[in-house]
Write a structure and sequence with these properties.
Blueprint (H helix, E strand, L loop, with lengths): L11 H15 L5 H29 L4 H20 L7 H18 L2 H43 L6 E13 L2 E10 L7 E2 H4 L2 H16 L25 E5 L7 H15 L3 E5 L3 H4 L5 E9 L2 E9 L1 H13 L5 H13 L2
Parallel strand pairs: 4-5
Antiparallel strand pairs: 1-2, 2-3, 6-7
Helix pairs in contact: 1-2, 5-7, 7-8, 10-11
C-alpha cells in the first residue's frame, strides 16, 4: 500500500514500500529480485526511523516570541511605507536605490568651488548672448520708430511720433541688459510719453496695427523704414505668415477707419490677415467675409460662422452702416465701399 504525506504527495517511505511490494510480487520468477526487495525494506525502515526522529525534534521546538514580534513589526513597517509612497511592496527596494543615487548627486553638487565656477561660466554665456541682443535692439529701435511714425501719419495721427526707449538696467535681468519701452506723442508739439499712460483706446488700436504691419514686413530682422513700402514688399523667411486682429479698429471711425482698412488690405496682399470687426469701412476692404452669429438652442448658446458673398455681402455691410433697417441709401453706401476697396 502506498503511503501519502499530509499534502497528498507520496512519501519516500511509501515509494520505497511500493517498489518493494512490486519486486516481491515478481521474485518468484527471478530470485535475484528478492534480494533487491530486501534492500528496499531496509531502506524503508530507516526512512521511518528518520521521520520519527524529526517529528520528535519538531515537537520539542517552540517559536521565539520575540523574534516573531520583530518580524511582524518589520512587515507592518514595510506595508506602511508602501502605502505612504504609493508603491507596491516589491517596488520599495528599487525606490530606495533611486533615492540613494539622487542623494549622491546632491552631495556631489555641494562642491562650492565647482558651483561657483559653473555660475561664472553661466554668467559669461548669458552676457555674451545679452550683448548680442543689445546690439540688435540698438540697431532695430530707430528703424522701428521711424516705420511706426510713418504709419501713424496714415492712421489719423498726423504729426505724431513713436519712439523706442532702450534703457540700461543696473542688474542683469531675464530680458537682457536693458529695458525696452514704447513712447508715443499723439500729435505735433507733444513730448513722447509711455504708450500705456497717454494713448487712448482708439490710438492704441491704430498703434497696434502700425506695429503689427511693420513687424509683418520685417525681412531677416531689418525694419522697414517707411510704411509706404508695405504694399510692395513680399514676405521672406522670418516674416509673419498670418496676422489676426480682434477689433483692432475699436474707437476708430470715419476717414481713420478707411485708412485702417486700406492698411490691412495692403498687408493682406502678401500676408494672410484675419480680422474681427464691427466697422463697415474696415470690413469692406476684405477679400472675403464670414458672418459670425449666436443663437440660443435648448438653453445653450451656439455660435455659427457662415461665408457671405454677393448680395448677402452687400446686405451685411449695409447693416453695419445703418443697423437692422436696411434703407436704400445704406445699400448704396455699402456697394460704394465695396467698389472703392477693389
Amino acid at each position: 500500500m502506498t503511503r501519502w504525506t499530509s499534502e497528498g504527495d507520496p512519501s519516500a517511505d511509501g515509494l520505497a514500500a511500493r517498489a518493494a511490494d512490486a519486486l516481491e510480487a515478481v521474485s518468484g520468477y527471478d530470485a535475484a529480485l528478492g534480494s533487491v526487495a530486501d534492500v528496499l525494506r531496509s531502506a524503508q525502515a530507516q526512512l521511518q526511523d528518520a521521520a520519527h526522529s524529526l517529528q520528535t525534534y519538531l515537537a520539542r521546538q517552540e517559536p521565539d516570541p520575540h523574534r516573531l514580534a520583530e518580524l511582524d513589526e518589520r512587515l507592518s513597517t514595510w506595508m506602511q511605507s508602501a502605502r505612504r509612497h504609493r508603491r507596491q511592496p516589491a517596488e520599495l527596494p528599487a525606490l530606495l536605490q533611486g533615492w540613494r543615487q539622487e542623494l549622491q548627486a546632491l552631495e556631489a553638487s555641494a562642491d562650492l568651488a565647482a558651483l561657483e565656477q559653473r555660475a561664472v561660466q553661466a554668467e559669461q554665456a548669458w552676457r555674451t548672448e545679452a550683448q548680442k541682443v543689445s546690439r540688435a535692439r540698438k540697431t532695430a529701435a530707430p528703424r522701428l520708430a521711424a516705420a511706426v511714425t510713418q504709419a501713424m501719419q496714415q492712421l489719423g495721427m498726423e504729426g505724431g511720433r513713436f519712439e523706442v526707449a532702450v534703457t540700461p538696467v543696473q542688474e542683469p535681468q531675464s530680458f537682457g541688459l536693458e529695458q525696452v519701452e514704447f513712447l508715443v506723442a499723439g500729435h505735433a508739439g507733444s513730448s513722447p510719453r509711455a504708450l500705456a499712460k497717454v494713448a487712448s483706446g482708439g490710438e492704441l488700436s491704430r498703434l497696434a496695427l502700425a506695429i503689427a504691419a511693420t513687424a509683418a514686413t520685417t525681412a531677416t530682422g531689418a525694419i522697414s523704414t517707411t510704411a509706404a513700402t508695405i504694399s510692395r514688399q513680399r514676405p521672406t523667411q522670418g516674416a509673419v505668415p498670418t496676422l489676426i486682429f480682434d477689433e483692432i479698429d475699436a474707437g476708430v471711425g470715419g476717414a481713420v477707419g478707411d485708412s485702417v482698412g486700406r492698411l490691412m488690405k495692403q498687408l493682406g496682399a502678401n500676408t494672410q490677415v484675419l480680422a474681427v470687426t464691427h466697422l463697415a469701412q474696415v470690413a469692406a476692404c476684405a477679400d472675403g467675409h464670414f458672418l459670425v452669429s449666436k443663437a440660443s438652442t435648448q438653453g445653450r448658446t451656439v455660435t455659427d460662422v457662415q461665408p457671405v458673398a454677393g448680395e448677402a455681402r452687400v446686405s451685411e455691410i449695409a447693416r453695419m452702416l445703418g443697423g437692422e433697417r436696411l434703407a436704400g441709401t445704406s445699400r448704396a453706401h455699402a456697394q460704394a465701399l465695396l467698389g472703392a476697396s477693389r
